[in-house]
Amino acid sequence: MDVISTHGGKYSLITVARLYLDHLLSLQQFDEAARLCQRVFGTDKQLWEEEVYKFVKVKQLRSVSSYIPITDACKLNPHVYEMVLYEYLQLDPNGFLQLVKEWPPRLYNTKAVINAVNDHFNKKDANILLEALAILYTHEKEFDRALTMYLKLQHKDVFELITTHNLYGMVKDCIVQLIELDSERAIAMLLKDNIPAEDVVRELEQCEQYLYRYLDAYDKVKSNEKFHWRLVNLYARYEPEKLLSFLKRSNSYPIQEAYDICQGLQFYPEMVYLLDKMGSTREALTIIMHNLQNVQMAIDFCKEHDDMDLWNDLINESVDKPHVMTKLLNSIAGFINPELLVDKIKPGQDIEGLKESVIKMLCGYSLQVSIQESCNQILGADYFDMHERLVRVQQGALNMTTDHVCGVCRRDLIVKESMKTDIVMFNCRHYFHEPCLLDKYNLDICIVCNSKKLGNSGTF
Q1: In the prediction, which pLDDT does 4 show?
Q2: Within 140-224, where are the H helices?
Q3: Which CATH class is domain 401-459?
Q4: What SUPFAM superfamilies does the record tag this protein with (predicted)?
């Protein structure tokens, strides 16, 4: 072939190539024959369309499929590509699917290929053919059918189909199937604004675990308090460790109903928080002491509320518990009078570390008293200093010039002899004609300063 193309001969290169092609096909050297076509025919559309039928006769279009031109520069008759696809469909379904994925749909009549697939559909290759149909229906823009095929296959390409072609309006009735296929991708897709949350919640009513996953993710990105009551139930059932933090950051749930749920499940920390929120602090303290048996938490709770009734309840609960009394003695300094606790200690009661605790408590109490006395001394000194400064200011002279005007009539204060009048001066250095004030106002307070306090500066 190379000699003929270089030096010429009695027969043309194409003639020899055709004869050699026939020879290779007769020897069943199909791959070599296909490579020959690519090398000799190149982008000659007519030659390809004439010679490709030789492969049809021996049912070896599959051999030439990798070499057949598919570019716009040498696009063959659609029937040629369809013949290749039909052969693959009949003899190699996997190869058929691969070609459907690789070949652009402009090469062939997709509807004709879809009909052929439906005609040759069989259970053995059902999954392969359904995937091919999904791709072909996508080419035809029959997205509802493509969506159905992918869902039937449980194929994750369904998510790409939905996002690429903006099919969010079609997923309403298949939300559960999408979550079952890939919950993470499905929920991420459902969180987009294209799909109303109300529709998603409605579809997931019968699948509470999926509903929980969706609303948990939804709350992180949208924080719509509309679904918070549902989340109380769902957190309590599926992820209790998140419930307390959720209760603290949300105000959009009925407190009593939330408390009933926590009480039924014996979620004591959550019960304490909700009782505190409802104002039942003494009941909350009882749960801390009896159910949680957390002394430090009880002490912190009393410190936070600084309620004498709570301290009394805690002290009364602790009288017959030496280890609790020790913690109380070490913690109450600065919050209640130590005598209240010491008086509760029974004579002869054995309390470990009592002496050290009492000394520490009294030292703390003494320190607090000392600090308060020092603060009082500082405040007293500041008071007298400020008072002295005020007196000095009030004893100072008030300057008046010919430029000053009356704060009411806005006329000059100093006038000619024939128009003289008494002048009223305030320590704030506002001046008035006495008649101007007496007509409408009294002399107890400067009307300019008073109007500024009321937010009506300039209005008298």
Answers
A1: 44
A2: 143-153, 157-164, 175-181, 183-190, 197-203, 208-221
A3: alpha beta
A4: ARM repeat, RING/U-box
